[in-house]
Amino acid sequence: MKEIELQSQPDLLHDGEVPSDVRTEELVLNMGPQHPSTHGVLRVILQTDGELVLKATPYIGYLHRSAEKIAEKVTYRQFTPYTDRLDYLAAMNNNLGFALAVEKLGGIEVPPRADYLRVIFAELNRIASHLMATGSYGLDMGAFTPLIYCFREREWIMDLFEAACGARLTYSYITIGGVREDLPEGWIQKCREFLDYFEPKIAEYNNLLSYNHIFINRTGNVGICPAELAVAYGLTGPCLRGSGLAWDLRKATPYCRYNEFEFDISVGRGQNGTLGDCWDRYFVRILEMVQSVRIVRQALDKLTDGPVQAKVPRIVKLPAGEVYYEVENPRGQLGFHLVSDGGTSPYRLKIRGPSFCNLSVLPVLAPNCLLADISALLGSIDIVMGEVDR
Amino acid sequence: MLETAVFFLFATVAVTAGLAILLSTHIVRMAYWLIAMLISVAGLYFLMGAYFLGVIQVLVYVGGVAVLLVFGVMLTSRQQAPKLRPGPGEALWLTIVAAVLLAGLIPSILRVRPEQSALVAENSVADIGHSLLGEFLGPFELASVLLLVALLGAAYLARPKIPVLGAQQKKGTTAL
Amino acid sequence: MMYIPQRPPVEYKGLSLKIVRLATRWGPTGISLALRFAWGIFFAAVVALVLFVWLVGRFINPLLPWFIRDFVVVVGLLGFVCIVAIIGIWGERKVSGRIQSRLGPMRTGHWHGWAQSLADGLKFVQKEDLIPRDADQPLFRLAPYVALVPAFCAYLALPFGVGWVFRDADVSLLFVLAMLAIEVLGVIMAGWASNSKWSLYGAMREGCQLVSYEIPMGLSLLAAVVATGSVNLITLGEAQSGGWFAWLIFQNPFLFLAFFTYYVASLASCKRSPFDLPEGESELVAGFHTEYSGFRFVMFFFAEYVAMFAVSALATIIFLGGWHSPIGGPSSPLWFVLKSTFLVWVQMWIRWTLPRIRIDQVMHACVKYLLPFTLLLFLGSSLWQLYDNPAHPAFKGFANLLRGVLGVLGLVLLGLYFFGAGYGYYNRNRLVGQMARRHLPGA
Questions:
Q1: Could you tell me how many CB contacts below 8 A there are between chain A and chain C?
Q2: Nearest neighbour of A368 by CB, restricted to B165, B169, B171
Q3: ipTM value of the model?
Q4: Is domain B1-83 given the CATH code 1.10.1510.10 in the classification?
Q5: Cβ(A110)–Cβ(A178) under 8 Å?
Q6: Quick check: B174 and A25 CB within 8 A?
Q7: Among A226, A287, B120, C354, which residue is least crowded by beta carbons within 10 Å?
């Protein structure tokens, strides 16, 4: 593998030129675990010179709940609710990843109806997650209204989910072998109504937030992440696609019948500012919502009749072996490295959280930002601490 | 009678604030005592009927100069103010200089006769405008040149000296 | 039929229960009675108040010594200012709710939550008075008053109509500007005295911003001063009598633009979004007033709404005809209050629509764009006065043509606004989210 040459930002505290005249004091700021714009319990220690940030160090672990260790003690089915709570905003996708990993190792075949249902729910959850990301990003930038509008749409999706599986946020709906139960009557009709209602709303959000000059000034040319840097730090998802790389696991290594659907990979193009800035990452999410709507429509049309669950015993026992399975979460590639020793619980389950890797690029992008840009950066990287800390 | 009372009120505040500036040890409090003094001086201007001058005093001195002063003071003294008391030798010299100045000032103050105190001018703003552009045009323009020089000097002194990103680039593997 | 779980009703306990009972004093049985008579009581109170004011003004006023009269007027002004703040806070929450397709306060007071501000006041008053141990004690306590008192003092020279002013000073415009400028110090004091780096940041940014934006504000107003030749607010107001086309905003293309630059600069001067970086709710928690709780915070909050109304009032007097009616009826302070309230409402509208501008962009916008532009407007307005006199009859025709065009343009904009509002209201069910149960499967 060739050595990737990086252009890393100069470390101004140690090797930069220190001017010899009066220097204002450097402040060490603590964007503490409780902060409105750190999207969860994240602590960032900022060394700033006035308004300019010189160094940012994130401290994580405040939401660590030992999910991976717990996995070694509970059975495979019992672990599904734990996957909900990793990236709690995209719980369906987490469930999907875990179920696919287990099914791959166990050689379990999933009926087609379950596959299409999985796609529908995963994509609806992608829309919900991106709505949350977009809304809270607007809130970080000071635009209070898009948040409420996005939540309004999200309520609709959550009502759909509640009708299907009884929960609004942590579903445990996509289980090993298929989905937990079939759709209630009239659900498909309501889902189509939602899609018809939602598509014009994206244009509304674009007019309200995306093309707003103030928003573009806040996020364009801020936190520019070149493609090589993104690859080197293991960024995935909208962060990677915002830097121009058209890499989407749903197209590259299709799972769950994604190869039967027609959709585009949303890539940042540097329209407002440089390629790879915060605006690109944000806009990729907006474009992905459009694509998700497309996919859900196709899946609703393709929905066949049949069972929604394969015949899987209540206590799943997997043959010895290991598998690493990655799925495309709204935040990036969520990977499950499952090592089984033939028992009812995993021997080791390592979860590759996309937000964990995405967050690692913060100290590289933060220097030479202004203080207000840190919020813009964090919002555009879009982390969920449940995934970072597990 | 009310005028005298108000005058003494403003004057007392001004003098007290001035003394507090001298005797205070906390530099930020000194700045705020200065602001109190400037506002009471503006009150004295109002009392004299020089409304325009009083308002400009508040607008420019308090709203501009004092704010900048407070900025500078707040940004450069995060710790408690250093000891600002003069030593004994300095105190002696300062007393002598102050006594000399007072000796010059007090006769001038006592020489002012009550009839000479300022009259309330009707249409004071228009009068000031006329004199600025008529009688005092020269000093007016000189003052604006002086302000321009000050602006240029400030802009030059505040130019950025820390190198901007892009001037230095290091090649290497992951820095963290 | 799908089972849709209903949320249980809210249960209050302890002190919250007492407060809720106090705020919603009339139970569900008494509320219909109260509502039936509410409007009657309200109108009776208004009529009684007007009668009382007229009586006092007509008969008692000349008999009282000047200090009693002044005292009553000042107390009245204070009351007006407090009512402005209270209604402003409630209005902000309702307006923000409606813009965000939700309702805003609905429970306290049983009618659209009108008593919400009062309930909030009660809540704030009974809070613990927390002062950080390392905070600068005297300055910390002083800061809210330094922020609020100058904002109130601006009303001393603000005329609501001819004769409806506390002191008709010759330099009333500059006096109001000067009082609004002192508020900066209160905010900086608050940021410093909190002994918290975050508050200090908020104070720094705010100081920069306010001081810089005072200049375009003043210059835009000066463009109007040049058109009228006086800094006296009553003279400025009286120069616009005779219908909407006599308003200063339509006299002069430069004045037309000066109104908008003044409005933008006044947004920055009130620390309103998009310039609300000092309050940066998402970044610095609450900026310079993070450490303030209870009644001290209420002071800052009040100061904001009081200043909002004051700058809107200035804009009304100088650009929008003040107390003169646009349709040619008698002029009255009511028109003044209505127009100022409209401008305050637009301020709230802007706040809930636009994101926040970063501080360096704020400064850029001021120094690089707004300031040269307002200088040009000032220059243009001065030149316009030079040529707009009987010595240049040709220019007079051109000037009148431009005035007509501007007036028509203003009317068209106003008409578009009302049309849009009507369209939105008429189609509100179709346009606003349809949060009804219809989207639930099986319903």
A1: 106
A2: B165
A3: 0.80
A4: no
A5: yes
A6: no
A7: B120
